[in-house]
Amino acid sequence: MDNIDTPPSRKLDVERIQHLLETEILGTGKHLIYEPVVDSTNALAMQLAQNGSEEGVVVLTDSQTAGKGRQGRRWVDVVGWNVLSSTVLRPLFPPYQLVMIASLAVVDAIADTCNVTANIKWPNDVLIRDRKVAGILIETSHDRAGHLVAILGIGVNINGHISRFDTTQTSLQTNQGLVTTATTLEEESGHVVSREAFIAHLLYQIETRYLALQQETRQTHGHGSISRFIREQWRARLSTLGRTIHVHQGKKLLSGVAEDVNDQGELLLRDHSGECITITWGDIE
Ligand SMILES: O=C(O)CCCC[C@@H]1SC[C@@H]2NC(=O)N[C@@H]21
């Protein structure tokens, strides 16, 4: 049993996150909702949002019983070792800009807490050394008053070593090839990472860009320098660009070189016949 990482059954210290946000990171106080176990933080946050909850409410947990991934997949976790968070937002700007803000926030929170460089696989997977460390799921809907709400769900593999997880205690073994495709911050930085510190930095990083973009959208309808700056920051972090890739869109497979992204964050793929295809969704391999 020596080589098996057994999860600590430590609960998230929400007061510590509040304290870090208010004193050290200089972000504003947040309305944090913590449940030790939920089906999905996104589902709970969506329920709250549809019932009119204010933006900025953050749902946190130690474990999800039905964590949601992109394109209907499951998101599995090991109790107490991951960051699982969902934030209620009411963006005035389009969802593709939220994709950019969220992935940049994760990249920056990783640099802040671990001093490790992470990159983005289009559109919003966060990778370190080409292995996935975080996933983002944005879901939109309308509340009872008809206003748009967006739930920004973020899952980050914080501690433990993927290759050593005790898969008899988790459903990780259902993820084919996880060991070669995923990683954790502990694995990459060489030290245990505080989930509380990571969450505080993450929320701060989301908030600064989000508020700036909300203000700019009110004033310029999204054509200002902040939108451009965020898009350029995100583009510069995309490890997908310049590579030969395969895009899975359901049963359809497209291959070619990922040349660039357009203003809406869509991927421009040059296929083998020389045609440029605009990719709006799909899984990149
Ligand atoms: O497939 C992906 O890459 C996206 C994964 C998103 C997972 C997070 S964990 C917190 C939040 N709650 C969910 O049910 N999913 C997101």
Any overview of this molecule?
- This is biotin--[biotin carboxyl-carrier protein] ligase.
- With 285 residues, the chain is α+β, with helices and mostly antiparallel strands.
- The protein folds into 2 domains: 14-218, Bira Bifunctional Protein, Domain 2 (BirA Bifunctional Protein, domain 2, 2-Layer Sandwich), CATH 3.30.930.10; 240-284, Roll (SH3 type barrels), CATH 2.30.30.
- The protein is 31% helix and 28% strand.
- The protein has helices spanning 14-24, 41-50, 95-114, 178-181, 185-189, 195-220, 225-237, and strands at 31-38, 57-64, 82-89, 119-121, 125-128, 131-142, 148-157, 244-249, 252-261, 267-270, 276-279, 283-284.
- Helix 3 packs antiparallel against helix 6 (195-220).
- Biotin binds at residues 40-42, 64, 67-70, 73, 75, 84-86, 125, 135-137, 153-155.
Q: Which structural traits does this protein have?
A:
2 domains, 285 residues, SH3 type barrels, 7-stranded mixed beta sheet, 7 helices, globular, alpha+beta, binds biotin, BirA Bifunctional Protein, domain 2, 5-stranded antiparallel beta sheet
In short:
The chain is of the alpha+beta class and 285 residues long. It has helices at residues 14-24, 41-50, 95-114, 178-181, 185-189, 195-220, 225-237, and strands at residues 31-38, 57-64, 82-89, 119-121, 125-128, 131-142, 148-157, 244-249, 252-261, 267-270, 276-279, 283-284. Helix 3 runs antiparallel to helix 6 (195-220) and helix 3 (95-114) crosses helix 7 (225-237).
